[in-house]
Amino acid sequence: MIAFILSIVFSIGGVGSAIAIVPVMGWLGVPLMTAKPTGLFINTLSMLSATLKNIRHGKLDVRFGLPILIMATAMSPIGAYSGKFIPHRIVLVVFVLFLLYSGTMMLFFRPRKRRGGGNHVIEGSLIGGIAGFLGGLLGVGGGGIISPALILLGYEPKKVASTTALIVFFSSLSGFLTYWGMGTLDLKLLLWVSVPAIVGGWLGTHLMHFKMSSDQVKKMIGVIMYLIALKTLLVALNL
After folding, report:
1. Which stretches of the chain score pLDDT less than 50?
2. Cα(226)–Cα(48) distance, rounded to whole angstroms?
């Protein structure tokens, strides 16, 4: 039920729900090393659907996203595997920082037009590497870093959205397969969380197009991310 509700809300705002579902599963007693591949599996399926839709409508520029895709896909398994060695509390603190960053972007960020200068290959590789590593480590795919970073650099938002969906599909898939290979996957949990999340994501996308203002929902998501960050910080501090 939680996965269903969060997926509706987050998909209305154009954001993958794994960023909220993973910490919530942690609060409910699910080990993070089990919750994270579930979040990545949700991202994989939802971003596959979005990517196929973008290809069908001719909105995908593969060359633009290639440097980011390569680095994110390569670094996601490294981030996933690193989770075995990084203390649980440090992972939670990184999660808090990630949520604060994403929530701040949702609440306050406004796109700006790109000016001359800058090397897209270098920029993309750096963004993709960081996003892939953190996405694999936290089980969230990295879209919450890639999309705001590219828009902050002045790239066109619609182009960024379609590109990010493709990148997150591959980085989430590579991270998920890594967790599966490490034996941390719970197939029963995967079924009970991913199916309602995917259904909720489809319903939320429908509501976004026909019923609700995504700008208002993005502000609400930003507040939710702040609240989740606060709760996760309290968990990390054992309060």
Report:
1. none
2. 28
